Structures are given as structure tokens and as C-alpha cells.
Amino acid sequence: MEEFLQHFRSHSRAEQRWLSAVFEAVEQQLHPLIDASLGLSVARLSLAVLSKVQTAVGGDAADLPVSYRFVSVSELLRDQRTACCSSLRWSSAHYQEHARGAELKLPGYKALPRDNLLLIGCLCDGRAAGTSDGVWRVRDAGASVACAMLKSSCLWLGRLMLFPSWNYIPHDAPAAGYLELLDPPVCVTLEAMAFDPGGALSEVMSVTRAAELLTQRCEEQACVCVSGRVSVVCPPLVIRGKQFFCLVLSEAGSSVPVFISGMVTKILNAEAGLYEIDGQVGLCLAYQPAQKCCGGLRPGAEIQLHNVHFLYRASPFAPHVVLCACLRSSLQVTAFSRLSSKVEVSGSHGPLQCLLLEKNLGASQYLWLCYCQNAVAERLCPRWVRAERVCVVAERLLDFVCDAEQKTQKKRNIYREMIQEPHQCPVTTFCVWWPSAALWSVRQLSDWMRREVWASLSLPSLLPPSAAHMTALELNAALSWSVHEVPLTDVSPEPLLLVGVLELDSTRATLQLRDQTHALSCLCVSTHQSGARTAHINTAWQGCLVCVRRCTLVMERFMKTRFPSWKHLDQPTYITHKHCRVYLQLCVEDLTIISPSAAMSRREKPSDGPESAKRPRADEAPERPLTPAACVSVLLRLESKQGVTLQNGSADALGLQPGFVCRAACLGDVQCWSSDPRNSRTQERERHGDAQEIDLHFMGSCVRWFPVLHPGCVYRIIARNTEDVSVLKAKGVSARGGVTQLSSPALLLQPQWRIHTITEELPDAQSGVPALMSVSEVLHSSSAPEIVSFYGVITQRITLQEDNGTKPKIQSLTAAGDASVEQDLRLRLTVQDAECPGHVIDVYVDLSCGPYTLGLIAGATVSVHHVQRRVSRACNVYCRSLPISCVSVTDLTSVRSRSAVAPSPPPMMLLGEWASGRAQRCVLAQVRGHVVCVLSLRLQWTCSLCGSIFRQSSCGRTHPPCDSTSAVFQTEAKVVLEDGSADAHVWFSSDTVCDLLKLNAGQWEGLQRHVKVKGHVKVYTRGRNMTCDEDPDDAVVQYLSCLCSSTAVCRPIHLTCRLRAQRTGKSQLRKLHRGQTEFICKFTPALQLHCQRVHTH
Ligand SMILES: [Zn+2]
Ligand SMILES: [Zn+2]
């Protein structure tokens, strides 16, 4: 050291200290690298280093760059946690200017911070260490670090170098950072070295000549020199342990070098090798051997690409233009980025690239796979899909969207890909935007639905044709509920897929499709008309990761409105409250399993049919070993299921909680197991014992089982971690005070118990489950019980008026947090017989006492369980729901096909036939007959708010006065119709009277104007004429009388009618006069019909 410091006697203390530090660093880190034979002392080496540093810094030779600190490689790797840059040549102003320039070019990124560090080391390429991997490293005595440089010379190898300007980019992994050398290194020691390829270069042949030689079969080995221009440099490859790369020489001047240059603006997916250049063009490097992390491909780096493929519209999920590098392409960084960026791990063989090789994917498919992998990772990992399995799930989805045949399956020949002309490689065959299926998250779909539900709202379209005649009360009731359905296929022009996990929700008692973004309720049915047991959604679906390509999005709207009349529909201010329910309707058949639940994979194991081959391999499912804990089970067949209602819970639960009851038959005694049998095949012993009838009570969180329990199906209930068989024994339930309430023994389900559907066919599985009645049977069977269960198709849903005050409100107890509460929601569902369309029954359903029932919309096939059959005073049969009632949607075929197939028209009926066969009477039918006479005709302007007669422009009500300014025109006519077999009284209301009277729009309007003067007119038949009580000579009365008796009205007519409530079933006695004699005759009352439609054709 003394020898060294002697040269700097005149320098200050601080400078002396700095010099000592340099000397020590040289001694420790650099001197050991120097070949001892050169006999270079530490002092001399230190002087050489110092002189190079001073030259690099520039300026006065007397000044020492004391602001720079010597850094060893190991120190850099260990202590430098953030990216930084260092340069001996930049002044502060120079650095600032460059940093600002770089930041302006790519807003959003910060420039690399500057550190004044001195880095000196040997450049080596790993040959010494036996790892010649194409990566150069900077080495000192302690450690080495990978480096990337823009230009290199083999003359630099093995020599001690000063690195004047460089970036250091650290990495998450220890000792994995790398250097980006900005300026060429400066040699510290002077050692002459010359490159000698050996041999004489006398015979240099042209590329053309060499190519000729190669095509000739040459026995002897020859060594030749070829000169040409390098036109292609292929990336280095390692095949079977051999590392090599290809280059193509061409005749000088024969081709123009083509390259594309640009700046990396974004790393789209480092693992997948996807980048963005110049803010708009994609760059895919996946077809090249994995880029080493020290590639310098960071945002802000300038690059040059040679021989890359130009792909236009390769995938909707990538930029329009993607440059794709293959084995013939080369990528060169021409300027390192001055910006600081996160360095992402790009494993040398990421799972995506492995898949690319394994499946030989085309570029379009690869880009889709990357998109899919991102979506799965974002939405399902880590809750349902482990990080290391994300790629497997993405691969299955790719298989699902592509037919296996359509994927490139040709065997690759990489030598041809690199060398052959014309060039052929997997990238050359790409598909335009295929696959194009978009994966929406559940949240995305739900948000779309919530926007769509109100965007699609058109108030006039929600109203029937008679809307113009409706009073405010009727109008607002008709607007209070509506439904909007959209098939998933219509949501976007590109095919849409939903991927999520099926789970049971305990607060709503529904099945849900979930991902990490959101959950959507699902109404799951089967398309089998027969309602085969196996087609139902069962317990094994719980936890399955599924893909849905087809389903219906249902949006139910609830509105509170105060429209005075239909004329105000364009003023949304009359809508006082609105909310919606959105959910999916799907068929079990349309669900594709991407990753089965443990129960599902177990269930599928025994079958080896072609269907199971298509399913994912069972070994890929995370099958956990059978839990070796003891448990008890009981096998039972469900016979009936009641609806979910709010019930009195246990003493500790506050107030009410949801619950329901099922009736079931035990198929055998309670069994003990050493390990959980789950849904495995039943054993003989499980079916031995007393076939006892029990009630299963599901309370609180146990209501989640509701959607997967179906009458007729067999289930195994399992209580784990116990050997006590009495746990599953049904007991007589005693209410408070010790009074036994229920006749059957009951079992209260515990939240930790599990239920498994048993899908195997058991000998007596179906017996004991009562068959459902049809609508006609409920209507006509004289022996129908008071509580009936039947099935049919909903043709109409009407929300009944709120009847406030009759029921205590239990809003606070309805599913907490569920903002969309419909208080006291009561409906009238018109259910049509599935086979005989003329037979309809009204079912009054009270939805206020439990979770909302999904899918009660026109066209849905429903099974209605445990409703009360009642007969009105007018002898009409209808049904009323009870707290135990349960309406469930079983089929959606008619909902789906509604647009394609018109609902079957009601049957044609003779009036005599309709009147006589009371028992077989149908409710809705078509009739053809002749209008005999008009019995009465009433025309009235009605106040739309209070229903009083409205004259001119004011309401006629005086006590209290009504200030309404809107009125609706209402009419009613009653005519006698005969068709040769019998007579009938047919009622026409507002929207059909005009058709009955055969008036055109102008005449109808004129009539309305005339009636407005008095507010109302009523004419009726007396004897042979028509008359009026008030003013028989009035022109309107005269006109109507004439009209009603004209042949225009009394004519043959074709109607669709609905049976009207009959006043009485008994015959009437009436006095008749014939001359002087008075007779008393018995008359069968005429058939009373209500016209629903006048067929005009
Ligand atoms: Zn190629
Ligand atoms: Zn009024």
C-alpha cells in the first residue's frame, strides 16, 4: 500500500482514505484474478485501475473521483435490492436530462436512480466453469453476475475490465440479478491478444459454391472457408444436452436485411413471453427457447427484430398485430432501458411454454391459452385452483373450446424450421381470431345483467293491449313485476364462456356459480321431460369447476310506480322504487366439468364408457384419501320436500330462521364405518332393517341442501367422527312443554353432517313417491284431496296488490343483507295442463314467508307441491299456497323455445259440449258461433285514480273531491252467442269490444269523444229493442242501438274464451207467459264466458 500511496503524497486526507479503499479492493477482488506469471504487483494494478477510472471520468488528471465507491460483485448481489445505474461519464446534469427524456417517452415509469459505483471485473462466458450457456458474466474474486451488452467482442473475454456505465437489475431470487452494460468495457491491463482461427485462409469460397459442394455427396471430410453475409442468426438451442445455434450465410448483396425496431412499452406476460412494442404491437417470444432473465427486455428498451412473423388479428385477446419470433428469428436489444421496472420471474421453462411444445400449439391457440391462464389465475386461484394447476385448468378449457383435431399435431422438425426455404414453422399457420371465446368473470356478467335489466326496460311493452283502458291501480300493478331473458349466446358477438365453481348457498337456499369476483344464483334443471332422477343436479356437483357455454340470463324487475295513466309512461319520475334479481337458468346437460369435485370423480370412476374418456382424467383430480375417521350413515329415499320458510329456530337463535322439512323413508338401519363412505356404491348391509318413515328437518345453514334434494332420489346422510349410531336415529319431536307435535319420528340435520346423492339404481327406489297430478286432474277430480301436488306450465304471472296491514312484517328477518326484499310478495300463477292446453288453474302463491323462488316465469314447467285445493263460491277450482308449499321449476324447454314455437292454442269447443260436461270442462277454448243479440253495452270514461265516472275534463267524485285530470275509456258488452249446440253469454271487455262492434279507429275515437260529454252510456235490450234508462232519444244511444242490432254485429264470429265464474250451479226457475197462461220453467243457466280474443281473419 505504501508503494501505491507514495504517488499521492500531495493529496488530502480524504483522498488518501479513498485511495486506500481502492487499493484494498484491488488486492482482495482483482489481484487474485491476474495470472501470477505476469508478475504484476497489487500496487501496479491499483495504479492501472486508477488511471483507467480517471480517464473514464475525464476532467483534470489531478482530481480523484472520490464520490465513486468501489463495489464488489458479491456486495452488489447481496446489498443492492433496487435497480440502479452507475456511470463514470455522466455529470449530474447529463443524468437528469436523460432520466427526464426516458420518463417522458414512457409515462408511468420512473427512471433508474443513480448510484456512484465503481465496478471492475473479468468478463467470462462460463467456459471456464464448464457452463457455456451463451451468457456472459462479470467476475471478481468473490462472485460473478450475469451481464447483457449491446455489442461484444471476443477480445474482451478473460480480461480485467472497468465498466464505465451500467444498469443493475436485481431479482426476487437471491443472486439472480444482472447487469446491463451501457458502454463498452475498458481494458485495465494491457495484454496483447490476437484472434487466430488457425489454418490458411487462402481458399475462401462463396456461399453458392459451398452450397453446391454440400449437395454433392462427399466421402472425404474437408475443411473449407466460406465467406458471405450473415442473414439469419437463430437462437441458441439445447437439444439432448448439446448446445448449438444456426446461422445462415447468404451471398453478399443478394438480400436486403429486413428488420423491425421499436421500444418495449409493456411486459404483457413475462412468463408467457408476451410483450408490447411501441404501445400497440404485440411481441410473442414463446416459440423461441425461453429468454434468460438477463435479456434486457424491460419497458423502455429499444429492440431490433429480424425474421419475425407478422400476425394480423391472431387473437381477439392480443393486440391486432403480433410479431412472433420463431426458431429462425433473432432479437437484439439495441439500447437498454433507463427506466426502473419490476423484474418478473420468467422461468426457463414455464408451464405455458411446456404446453406450447407438448401440444404443438399454433400462435392463435397459444395467445388464447395465455388469456385463459390469466383469467383462471385471477378469478379462481388460490381459492379453488392451486397456482401450479392454473395451467392445467387453462389447458382443459383450451381443449374444450377447440376440437382436438383442429390443433396442429404435425411432428416438428426444428432443423427445417431454422434452415429450410421457403420457411415453415408452427407460427406460419395461424388462425384469424380462433379460438375467440371470451371468458367473462361472474362479476362481469352480473354487472352486464344489471345494466341490461334497466337498459332493456320499455314500459309500454310490459303492458297488455288493454293498457289504454287500465286504471292507475291496474296499470301500476301490471308494471310491478317483469322479466327479461337473454340467452348467453346473445350477450356478445363472440362466443362467451362462464367458468366457475358450483356451490350451495345457505342464505338463499340456491345453487350458485362462483368465482373470486362474485357469485350468481343458478336455477338448474334438466331438459328431460320425464324428469329422470339422474338428470337432476345432485350433491356431487357441489365444488365442481364447470364451464358453461349455454344458459339463459334471467333478470326479474320489481318496480313501484305511480303512473296516473298509460299516457304518462314516458315520464320516469313516476317510478318511485326499483330493484332487480338476476340469475342464470341452466341445464345440467350444458355444464362441462373442467375439474371435478372429489365426489364427482369418485362417482365417475366405475364407468369406463366413452363418456368418461372425454372427461378429465381422474388422476388429475385432487383426490384426497378416505378420511380414516369413524362415522355413521343412513341410507334414505326422499319422498317429498316442503318449501323453505322462516321458522322458529332453536332457543338460542334469535327469532326466526329459514328451514324446511322433507319426508323420507329409511332404506335400512344406521351403519358404522371406519372411514367416510361418501357417495360410494351402497353396501348390502345398508339396505337391511326397518323401512321407517321419518321427517328430516333442515334449519339455518342446513337449508343449503335444498337445491340438491329431489323427491324420489336416494341419499346417504353421514355424521363424521362418531361411532354412535343413535346420532342418526329419528326421534319423536316434542315441542315446548313436552307436547309431541309430529306424528312421524324426526331427525334434525346438523350443519356438520354431509349428504350424498346415490346415483346407482336401487331395486325399490321409485316406490312410495306419489306421482304428481296433472292440472286437469286437480280441476276435475271429485276425489281430489285438499292438499294437492301437481305439475304444469306457467302461462301467466300476476303480482297481487300489496295488502298492507293484514300480516305482521318480518322484513328484518328475511335474509339479512339482501337489499332486494320484496315485502309481502303474493302472486297469481296461471298454470296450464302440460298435455291439455285448455285446462288452466290459478295458483295463489305467497312468497313472503321464505327465500325468493327463482324461475316462476311464463313458459316454465313447474311442479307445485302441497298446495290447498279450493273451490270458489262460483264453483271455480283454484289453489292456494301454504307455508309447507313448494313450487319448483323442473323444465325450461318451453321458456327457451318460446320464440321459435308458438304456445299450443286452446282446443276448439262446441258450446253444448262445453256447457254439459261440467266435470270435463275446460277453462280456455276456441268457439265459433253466431252473435244472436247484444244484451247490454256500457261505455264509460273512468277516473284513472279513483274509478269514478269522469265527465268532460274532471272527475265526478265530490266526497271527497278528486282532482285527477286523467281518465280511461272502459267498455263492457254482454252478448248471446249460439253455435247450434247451445247458447252462451259472452262478456267482452274494453280491448275486445271494438272488435265486436267492428268499428275502425276513427269511429271508435269519435264514439269516445261523444261519450265524454256525459261520462257514460249504457244501453240494454228490452224486448226486441235496445234502450237506455236516462235519455233514450240521445243520438249516441240511438246510434248504439242501431249498431248493436245490425248485421255488422250480429254475425258469425270466432272467439277464444275463458270460462267465467258461474253465479250458481243450480238451475233457475222463471215465469213464462203464453197467452193467459203462466208457466214456471226450469232453465239451465247459460254458459258464462269471457272473450279473450276476437279472431279477425
Ligand atoms: Zn417461423
Ligand atoms: Zn277521481
From TrEMBL:
Pfam families in the record: CTC1
Principal subcellular localisation of the protein: nucleus
UniProt superkingdom: Eukaryota
Bias type Basic and acidic residues, positions: 601-623
Classification via InterPro entries: CTC1, CTC1-like
Similarity comment: family membership: Belongs to the CTC1 family.
PANTHER family hit by this protein: CST COMPLEX SUBUNIT CTC1
Record's protein name: CST complex subunit CTC1
